[in-house]
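User: I'm writing a short report section on ligand binding and want a predicted complex to refer to. Could you take this sequence and GMT and write out the structure as tokens? A short remark afterwards would be nice.
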Amino acid sequence: MKIGIVCYPTFGGSGVLATELGKALAQKGHLVHFITYQQPVRLGGFTPNILYHEVQVPTYPLFDYPPYETALASTMVDVIKNNDLDLLHVHYAIPHASAAYMAKQILKKEGKNIPVITTLHGTDITLVGRDKTYAPVVTFSINESDAITAVSQNLRDETFKHFHITKEIEVIVNFVDVSRFSRKPIDAFRKVIAPNGERILLHASNFRKIKRVQDVVKIFAEVNKQIPSKLLFVGDGPERSTAEDLSRELGVCDEIRFVGKQEQMEDILAIADLFLLTSEYESFGLAALEAMAAGVPVISTNAGGLGEINIPGETGYMADVGEVDTMSKQALSILQNDEILKGFKERAAAHAKKFDIHNIVPLYEKLYEKFL
Ligand code: GMT
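Assistant: Sure. The structure tokens for the complex follow:
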């Protein structure tokens, strides 16, 4: 098949998932065309069967806001026509689903039918998409998609709750390439972070308000009172400085490292003992799944779809949003004993296998085949 994939090219979960999907499809012999404003971060170097088309947005003094959606729709038309694509798969509704609708209508006038599949990822529905400045367009363009998928049962339910959706939404859960994350820890790296064999806790996100990164610092401060430990913060975003301020206030800044955006998550996860995800909402929590695949147990909130991946007492624990004390105790109960930690690590890795790329990608292929 010749498949167009549209996504955000950044470190966010939707872009990561879309890129990994494209790479997996290309490996299976499909021809994949990425249409994005920048090369997706997880794309890596040259891969046969993958082409990348950059959306250029020309500026003009009149534009206070350059019309990205128009440029995207026009690029879609160009790529679909000139490469005779079979279908277009857009990730994250805003503005990809509406740009795809526009491209589809243009191509229809020229006698080409291009099926559009929209995958909903989370904040496109639960946060941004619900804002009334976007909601009518989001509702319309989701309904106009030929197929709609959501990355968790919870997100499917939320979509029906908040939008008037007239079509079925298929749940195709997020996936992880388990083989990529089953890495041996690099000893030298572990020693740099935890020179005296301290436990390593980890949080990775885009540091938006929804992630509640201050809770991560508070949990760590409690854990650190009882167990020699270090905290790694991976990623960057608006709340990073708040987290840094809090770590100084709580006297744990020397035990915390902010390492910024990182591409080699598998190497970082390989040295970690516990992953913390304190979000107010997660449609799925791909970062937590990647942690589990690397054999790292997860302490998370029970918000959104997190309960669909984190099994309390097996792969980690969950607590209500903001329940910092509970999450600190849960973290300690896992980290205090080597044998207990080992058990959680093994079960987390075993559970992640259910979400392995080889189990989930065929579900997308099956969906695509319906339109050929
Ligand atoms: O978490 C973010 O803020 C990034 C966001 C995105 O769209 O890039 O992630 C969403 O999509 C991921 C992949 O499907 C999910 O694993 C995340 O849970 C989801 N984030 C939220 O729902 C907040």
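A remark for your report: The chain has a mean pLDDT of 96. The chain has two domains: 2-175+356-369, 178-355.
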